Amino acid sequence: MNFRIIVVDDDRAVRRMLAGIIENHGLGEVVAEAADGEEAEKKIIVMNPDIALIDLLLPSKDGIEVIRESRGKGATTNFIMISQVEAQDMISKAYQAGIEFFVHKPINVTETVNVISKVEELIKLKTTFMKIKETVSGLGTLERFEKDKPEMTKVDLLLAELGILGETGSEDIKILVENFDLFKDTASNLQEIYRFLQEYYIKTRRKKSTDLKAIEMRIRRAITKALSNIAAMGMEDFEGEQFLKYAPVLFEFREVKKHMDFLRGKTCEGGKINIKKFLEGITFLCKK
Length: 288
Fold this sequence. Notes:
about 290 residues, 5 strands, single chain, elongated, alpha/beta, about 60% helix, Rossmann fold
């Protein structure tokens, strides 16, 4: 995905520096520059770039005004605020206006690269979420889907809605859900669950690594991706049906909110997953 970026700053040297960082690190294409708020707003509305790096203090119209008015006129651009201002109330206003991250001046190359990379990852997650949403909308209700596509099971649909059906660990999760009643009372910890899966693969002669660590990593990666997708759903629509259906059942809700803050760049650490809760939750949803 080639990201389209606009750089907005009244200092030409800063614009050149940011454009150089973007180009030298392969972060996307700088499609426009602007030196004041009025010019920036017009270009953002017309071009609707993926990302705008925008200074807080601009001539004619400040960065916060530009963001609010651009969003009000339909722009879906992701904003990164750049400023020397460190006043907490101004930073809070910037986040309320809709910025994703805040970069302090003077420009630090490492910080700038990391922030732009995080925003681009966030855009990818949002895109994934929208594709999932479109796919599920196209399928209609679960009952209709099961009628039209009998080869797909309920757990397949749930994994698809979570955006992890294609993950390597999704097969492990599916088998555990389908056989949950066989080990739920005897497996007191995760290692025993992984051993159940190991024995299952050996008995059924599946072409799958039966190493316990490999099994754990496959499952952990898939569930972690599900958490990221759910967090992206929440950022898109915190009261959305899909988000409210999955977030509290599959994860600790505080960890979902923590992961949302991580994706927004407000924290350095994402939310944690609880594998047993996820398996219990998805099994419960399959039986509803």
